[in-house]
Request: fold
Amino acid sequence: LQFGFTTIFVAAFPLAPLLALINNIIEIRLDAYKFVTQWRRPLPSQAKDIGIWYGILEGIGILSVITNAFVIAVTSDFIPRLVYAYKYGPCAGQGRAGEGCMMGYVNASLSIFRVSDFEKRSQPRTNGSELFEEAVKYCRYRDYREPPDSTEPYTYTLQFWHVLAARLAFIIVFEVCFLCCCSL
Reply:
């Protein structure tokens, strides 16, 4: 169980392997104390290998590669930044990405929503004039959608599809490379 949780969710909680190691060290010491002072010596029995557990551990390893690839691709900002730097940023088409190539990334990763387009039941209680001295007409949110004034408002932009394709490509390349290294 510990091996499964540690390997499957290591991208979500990178501190898990260290905590598992500390737990195992403490558990080994406690078991040693019990064997020396509390119990009789166990009788050894011979075994050829670990049996069915080898297949189970191998399956957990493959599942962990797939899960971690999805966690990295979907939750991190790594891939959208690369797509912006090489396709949409100031350095697009130059084959390089440096410090100045990310200028405008935040603005490009936010979409615009017209507050008056809310459905009646989900409209805000106030128009924001008490906080901003004038009524709020637009809000920004993290997505890649067309603005409300376009011919097809709130549909996905081409940048969304590029980011999605890059994420799926990353998942496939990550899995193939890692599983090839494991099989070697």
